[in-house]
Automatic annotation (TrEMBL), chains A, B:
Reaction mechanism of ThiL seems to utilize a direct, inline transfer of the gamma-phosphate of ATP to TMP rather than a phosphorylated enzyme intermediate. ATP binds at residues 117-118, 141, 208. This is Thiamine-monophosphate kinase. Belongs to the thiamine-monophosphate kinase family. Mg(2+) 3 binds at residues 26, 70, 206. Substrate binds at residues 49, 257, 312. Mg(2+) 2 binds at residues 42, 70.
Amino acid sequence: MKKLDEKKIIDIFQRKLGNKKFISEDVEKFTLGKTKIIAKTDTMVQSTDIPQKMGLLDAARKSVIACVSDFASKGVKPEYGIISINIPKSISTKEINNIANGFKKACKEYEISIVGGDTNEGKEIVFNVCIFGKSDRIVTRKGSNKGDLIFTTGPFGYTSLGLEILLGNNKKINNLIKKSVKSVINPKPRLDYGLKNKRYFSSSMDSSDGLSTTLNEMSKQSKKKFVINKIPINRDLENYFKKHNRDFNSAIFHGGEEYEFVFTIPSKYRKIIIKNSILLKTPIIEIGYVELGKGVFIQNQNEEFKLKDLGWKHFK
Amino acid sequence: MKKLDEKKIIDIFQRKLGNKKFISEDVEKFTLGKTKIIAKTDTMVQSTDIPQKMGLLDAARKSVIACVSDFASKGVKPEYGIISINIPKSISTKEINNIANGFKKACKEYEISIVGGDTNEGKEIVFNVCIFGKSDRIVTRKGSNKGDLIFTTGPFGYTSLGLEILLGNNKKINNLIKKSVKSVINPKPRLDYGLKNKRYFSSSMDSSDGLSTTLNEMSKQSKKKFVINKIPINRDLENYFKKHNRDFNSAIFHGGEEYEFVFTIPSKYRKIIIKNSILLKTPIIEIGYVELGKGVFIQNQNEEFKLKDLGWKHFK
């Protein structure tokens, strides 16, 4: 989840561990026997990833969900999981039960069998989840072409507001607030949509580090220009920000933790993927298109503004 | 590494996560495609597993080694690894380099390719390692039969003395002290020996939770009596304990962290496994035999004493 300044630290690990031609991808791949295995690990740390008002059941569930989200973006079905937890000595049986129920819930929702793990004593709660599946081919982050259309699997921005509410003292409860808090504590990656539509995707990436980070990474890896002509925000959230005289771009593009994904398709697949979005009740949003060039730009009337990568920049 | 009271906590997780017929084993198994995958995860936590005098390079290396040790006991070759680390904000580049070098060292020694992982901010250092291999069959903990011979892959007890020295203020340096400290900071699981001899083993188990725990678990799973007629202690360590008027049984049987393994064989394989121990320079020690009955007993002259399971009992 919250990561250190990756540029520096990951560089050191990559150099030392000899992965020279490293291309950043949502999942890990390795072959054992004749099987191409896909794996994803994610760590949730109490002091940096779990707001105090978030229960342990939701936190444990979300630690699995974070991995599922990456599998969803690549169109790979998770099959097995290994869970390691650190818990402080002071933990209660009730809390252990909540944690176990959270893992159980996520595994039931996404049909994952837990095959093992370990339990350790530590100063703070840490959930480390690793999930496994198989796939002969995954959609990469780098495959988009000129003329492709860019989509997201859902609206953005609720998590930023939700986190603000969870971390603050807001006492007001209305539908928007409920929805925003729920987006943080109960995210639902669009696994079905990824599984059923990956054949149409030219590229894809999980968006949980923030939409601006995702779009910039996909643009960079594809060596193409991404033009965004529609902001994926719902009316209720837009009205909220306008009413409070606040700019919503930061929430939409730089918040992160949406656990949606971004994908590009050749325009000929527009009809079928929209049809599938209705069938699977996944509210996909067409946000722009791919051009020759580089960088990510937001098109507003006749002007273009460069969208910088300002997602999880970790350890400011 | 150091684990909570497992009876209670693991029971909750097993009940919730639906693994009803759970049999404790050194490694996890699952099938993807046609490949039977073997996995092992281990977590090393700074506050409970890393003595202050142990460097981060050795600690990082050991976090991989702990997993390799389980693979060694089952005769499975590790091929890939995923590493997750938590590090506090205050960590230095030098420390990051030490950590990366420790992982690199272990991976080079045991020919493991790291395929990914993640880096997170946390209150204390945590290394979570998961390694992968494949095997159609593993040696279980439960396969021993009446008349089988019981062996360990090395002498026990050095780690207990080594840990005592690392945690204390001992200023004296002699060969035994060096050897004992080295046994803690630089354990070397007998992977080659496990790989080349597993066909002869009727059962086996990694001993890092303590020899008494290992023997009791193997006896219990096999529903056989284990009779120990030779204590796997080297002369130098035995002399040290005698000189200081200390009982060495606790160090030998209940210390743990040796990263050796215990195995049983039908007696007809005695010659070949001893021959292989010379070839592979692995000092195996025959410590007893398997009988009908239950429990683990130390045979001393004509008397037998029950050996209780007093290894890592976690969270006293």
